[in-house]
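[Meeting: bench + compute handoff]

Bench side (C.D.) handed over the final construct sequence. Compute side (W.E.) agreed to return the predicted structure before the next meeting so the bench team could plan truncations. Sequence as handed over:
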Amino acid sequence: MNSEWHTPPADLSLNQHEVHVWRCFLNQPEQQIEALAGTLTDDEAKRAKRFHFQRDRLHFIASRGALRVILGRYLRADPGDLRFIYGRNGKPSLAGEKEPRLCFNVSHSRDLALYAFTYDMKIGVDVEYIDRDRAISHIMERFYSPGEISALQSLPADKQHDAFFTYWTCKEAYLKAEGTGLSFGLDKVEISMAPEKHVALTGINGDAQQAASWSLHMLDAAEGYAAALAVNGQVRRLKNWQWDTYKPPHT
């Protein structure tokens, strides 16, 4: 599990077989929200206005704006000039990308967002707030394998919610990397978790060989959250960056 989040260097670069994960807290100051809102397209600005609650609107601006700024740093491009296309299940990718292709994925829960980036590998990230009041037994029965359920039930009661959400984020990170979303089925994705908190994808619809081509990584996103990263390939280096602030070019 990667637990330290570092300030990115000014000369940020992303190499082949390297993965960068960024952490951004979405409760940003008003000045920062205004700056990030300036990076959005007209369609994104209209989408932000459609949110009923102001908190959701501000979180959308912060999340989408931060994504644009980070992508702009990798691509040496103006954040507002970037355009996205969307897959069948809504997974975004960059329009007009050439080889090598910058691949990314985004997840957010409550006031925290994670962004994952790599070149030419399928990638997915998921973060979930650990709701300790949530009833998990019926969810486990529906979406988890007998082995996963047995492993969870063998844990002390005060550890089961943490493990439940760890399994969940691992499964969803894989589904997001594939671009299928939950339509494929969490129950078709099987995870193993060792006592030292190493995780592995052990089965995809019963196929262990297909699962073996994937790398899973638990992420220490923040206190009270579970998070995981899935990559279709071997990750030689994983770096965690902390989002700080954004200053528009004209300031």
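W.E. noted at the follow-up: The chain is about 30% helix and 25% strand. C.D. will use this when planning the next construct.
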